[in-house]
Design a protein that fits this description.
Layout (H helix, E strand, L loop, with lengths): L4 H15 L3 H8 L3 H9 L8 H10 L6 H6 L17 H39 L1
C-alpha cells in the first residue's frame, strides 16, 4: 500500500492555516504531542503513525475521523457524518493501538529532551556570568 505522507503534511498545513490554529492548540485539542505534529507538518520523519493519531488530528481539525487516513492512502476523504470504516483484523487493530501509544511516548520523550537541553544551556550560561 502506497502512503503519501507529503499529502498528509500538505492537508494539515492548509487546514491549520485556514483555521488560524497554532500547533500548540492542535496538540491540546488532539492530545497528540507537538513533536509528532511538527514531524507530520514538516514531513521530517516518515514512520508509520497509528490510526488513532491521524483520527485525533482529523477530528481536532474539524474533519471526519478518517480524513487523514484517506489522504495518506490517496483516497477521497469522507465528509463529516459518513460512517466509519471498521477494520476487520483485531490483531492488526491492537498492534496499531500499541504503535500509536509508542508514538505518543516517543513524542513526549522528544519534547522532554528538548526542554532538558534548554534548561542545561540556560544553566551553563548563568554559570559563565
Amino acid at each position: 500500500m502506497t502512503e503519501d505522507w507529503a499529502a498528509v503534511a500538505k492537508a494539515i498545513n492548509e487546514r491549520v492555516h485556514e483555521l488560524g490554529m497554532k500547533q500548540r492548540v492542535l496538540a491540546e485539542r488532539s492530545a497528540v504531542s507537538q513533536a509528532i505534529i511538527r514531524e507530520l507538518q514538516y514531513n521530517t520523519v516518515e514512520r508509520r503513525r497509528s490510526n488513532r493519531t491521524l483520527e485525533a488530528l482529523s477530528v481536532a481539525l474539524g474533519w471526519h475521523p478518517q480524513h487523514l487516513t484517506a489522504v495518506l492512502r490517496g483516497r477521497k476523504p469522507p465528509v463529516p457524518g459518513d460512517p466509519l470504516y471498521i477494520g476487520t483484523d483485531p490483531v492488526a487493530d491492537r498492534l496499531s493501538a500499541i504503535e500509536d501509544r509508542l508514538d505518543e511516548i516517543t513524542g513526549r520523550l522528544d519534547e522532554m529532551n528538548i526542554n532538558l537541553a534548554s534548561m542545561i544551556n540556560r544553566s551553563d550560561a548563568n554559570r559563565e556570568r
